[in-house]
Design brief:
Elements: E1 15-19, H1 36-40, H2 42-50, E2 54-58, H3 75-85, E3 89-92, H4 98-105, E4 112-115, H5 122-126, H6 129-136, E5 141-144, E6 166-168, H7 170-184, E7 190-194, H8 203-210, E8 215-218, H9 220-229, H10 244-257, E9 260-262, E10 266-270, E11 280-283, E12 292-296, H11 298-309, E13 313-317, H12 330-340, E14 345-348, H13 351-359, E15 368-369, H14 373-380, H15 386-389
Parallel strand pairs: 1-2, 1-5, 2-4, 3-4, 5-6, 7-8, 7-13, 8-9, 13-14, 14-15
Antiparallel strand pairs: 10-11, 10-12
Helix pairs in contact: 9-10, 11-12
Bound molecules: adenosine-5'-diphosphate and magnesium ion.
Length: 394
């Protein structure tokens, strides 16, 4: 169901509380090392300022566990945001203190303030209704633009939405509309590429996508469990023996649904992960007992590449190998480059997959790179995210 956005509600001169995801990496000196998440919120903030709203931003940073811990202060973010917006960003040192309330009351139309880390309050992660109400009392409209935390039912992501008119920001809208459309009404052939370390991390994703896609490519560590389920020996590779029966069921279910499921035909194997590792390429029925599968082989990579280019909608989650280490990166890089050539919709979900696409230099060619690792996985599992569910329907 489509959700109302900032464009569907009157914000002029109103106090608007915006949940953003400013959980940015910082070095030991409190310098922001990657401002991607701050920049991702600029369209929504910019729109609200243009409409002369009074913008009150709320976010978490790290895991201060419900206590004030200045190591996790958002103050450096306020400064950084001010530079990006070229206007002062006021800082509310204690999100809910009287002083902050007075600061909010004196905010003028078109001014911005950032509240201190909301996870300094124990009620945040517990979704304490008292905190939800307290946040709601600061404003007249609530906007959620924090897709990355939308899978958490916290006071600032879900609870507060019960007490104010609640709508999506532009980043949130982009995430849910592109991924939502791909899942509900994909242009076909619809393909999913799944990889990453473990089957157990992705069971829900595999099950949900299996019911929707035409073609499923499986690589990465998780393919080992499927290969084993097909009767191959995978040597010393990462294997989840207890998931072999599940893999058999999933393979059977794919056949039943007419999904074309492809597993690796060959693999890059080595004794250990390492930049200096001596590698071999073997067929999947020839994996030596003492070696580990650490990437899909060249034959598989070129088959996957060709299949990918023929799809009209592709969702990719999980690298094809240990792509962080050069000798095992080739399969993942080939897949990333093929994704860049798709004439259709390409969606990347999952933290490591995003890193892989960036490493391959093709990020700009993707239709959508999800900003939320855990949230995008839960979305692909078909779960309703609490932070999305709480917003008004269109
Ligand atoms: P994402 O973050 O995109 O959801 P995952 O976290 O599930 O992806 O998986 C990424 C990790 O999987 C990477 O650290 C990668 O090194 C590892 N991996 C991929 N293939 C293998 C393999 N064959 N053996 C061991 N680890 C692997
Ligand atoms: Mg990961």
């Amino acid at each position: 169901m489509a959700k109302k956005t900032v464009k569907d509600i009157d914000v002029r001169h109103k106090k608007v509380l915006v949940r953003v995801d400013f959980n940015v990496p910082m070095d030991a000196n409190g310098h922001i090392t990657d401002a991607t998440r701050i920049k991702a919120a600029l369209p929504t903030i910019g729109y609200l300022l243009e409409k002369e709203a009074k913008v009150i931003l709320v976010s978490h940073l790290g895991r201060p566990k419900g206590q004030v811990n200045l190591k996790y202060s958002l103050k450096p973010v306020a400064r950084h945001l001010g530079e990006l917006l070229k206007q002062e960003v006021y800082f509310g040192e204690d999100a809910l203190s009287e002083k902050t309330k007075i600061q909010i009351e004196s905010l003028q139309a078109g001014e911005v303030m950032l509240l201190e880390n909301i996870r300094f309050y124990a009620g945040e992660e517990k979704n304490d209704p008292a905190l939800g109400v307290a946040l709601a009392e600061l404003a007249e409209v609530y906007v959620n633009d924090a897709f990355g935390t939308a899978h958490r039912a916290h006071a600032s992501t879900a609870g507060v939405a019960g007490f104010l008119p609640a709508v999506a920001g532009f980043l949130m809208e982009k995430e849910i509309s592109i991924m939502g459309k791909a899942l509900a009404k994909p242009e076909r052939p619809f393909m999913a590429i799944l990889g990453g370390a473990k089957v157990s991390d992705k069971i829900g994703v595999i099950e949900n996508l299996l019911a929707k896609v035409d073609i499923l490519l499986i690589g990465g560590g998780m393919a080992n469990t499927f290969l084993k389920a097909q009767g191959y020996e995978v040597g010393s590779s990462l294997l989840e023996a207890d998931k072999v029966p599940l893999a058999k069921t999933l393979l059977k279910s794919a056949r039943g649904k007419g999904v074309k499921l492809y597993l690796p035909l060959d693999a890059v194997v080595a004794e250990e992960v390492g930049v200096e590792a001596s590698t071999q390429t073997v067929a999947v029925d020839q994996v030596p007992e003492e070696l580990k599968i650490l990437d899909i082989g060249p034959e598989t990579a070129s088959l996957f590449g060709e299949l990918i280019k023929s799809a009209k909608t592709v969702i990719w989650n999980g690298p094809m190998g240990v792509f962080e280490i050069a000798p095992f990166a080739q399969g993942t890089m080939t897949v990333a480059k093929a994704m860049a050539e798709v004439e259709g919709t390409t969606i990347i979900g999952g933290g490591d997959s995003v890193a892989a696409v960036e490493k391959a230099g093709v990020a700009a060619k993707m239709t959508h790179i999800s900003t939320g690792g855990g949230a995008s996985l839960e979305f692909l599992e078909g779960k309703e995210l609490p932070g999305v569910a709480a917003l008004l329907d269109k």
